[in-house]
Amino acid sequence: MTAPKPSWARKCGEQKARELGYDSFPIDPFEIARGEGIELSPKKPDQIGVSGGIVFFGDDVGIFYSTDIKSLGFQRFTVAHELGHYFLKGHPEAILKIGAAHVSRAGFTEGGQAIEIEADHFASGLLLPTTLVRRHLADEPIGLEGIEALADVSHCSLTASAIRTAECSPYPVAIVVSRGDEVRYAFMSDGFKQLGALTYLRKGDALPDTLTRRFNASATNVASGMRACEETNLNCWFNGDRRIALDEQVVGLGSYGFTLTVLSSDNLPDDPDEVEDEEAQLIESYTPKFARGR
Ligand SMILES: [Zn+2]
């Protein structure tokens, strides 16, 4: 199997949004599909875990998306993912090789097929292009409020918006998604990585003794979307060599049992203007399933 090319796929998504004239949020994957003459059908899937799929039949193309999860952000991300299979070079051929239809499973990409990983990155580039994300974040408060405003304006999930914020934010920020006392995945912006010699958090790492860990000890906090904020420091989270004060903002993501933590500060300098999203690091434990949910 060929290795996935996530940054290539994300760039293709961004380029497609630009090409179609989207210069502001929200970017509508349903409209893009209709513009391509693709038939869209909402569908209750026969199998559990199926988020959507694409069917190539001669010149006709159809996309279906699961309505099991009511969230509009989830459905939009699913349609954008299927558009990735339609637009990305080599994807239709790869799908036709194994049959005319392809079914996508939310969360299936964890250590999964290259085309699934690429389609997810195409979707995040299409719906949340770097230029628009940076422009939006520059006008919003630093941290969770700005990410929530981005999710609102882009009609994307809070986690998808948080991941893209960490990938291309104009200010230093890290985001951590956790469950119980474990890290699920974490991203740092380029500016954040430059704050010191940091230890990267990986899937399965124990959460440090922080507000997030205490917050997660109560299932109700997480399930009912409670929020909390406290001052923390870089050293405590990432073993940095400097004690830089950070705001730790925490919000419960609901019934899946996940928590989003945003680490940032009003007192840190902005990143240089240069966008170096090429270097944005894809943490191996990235689980798009949760990016699609809330
Ligand atoms: Zn797929």
From TrEMBL:
Organism name: Sphingopyxis flava
Protein name: IrrE N-terminal-like domain-containing protein
Tree of life domain: Bacteria
Domain IrrE N-terminal-like: 63-137
Record lineage: Bacteria, Pseudomonadati, Pseudomonadota, Alphaproteobacteria, Sphingomonadales
Pfam family, one: Peptidase_M78
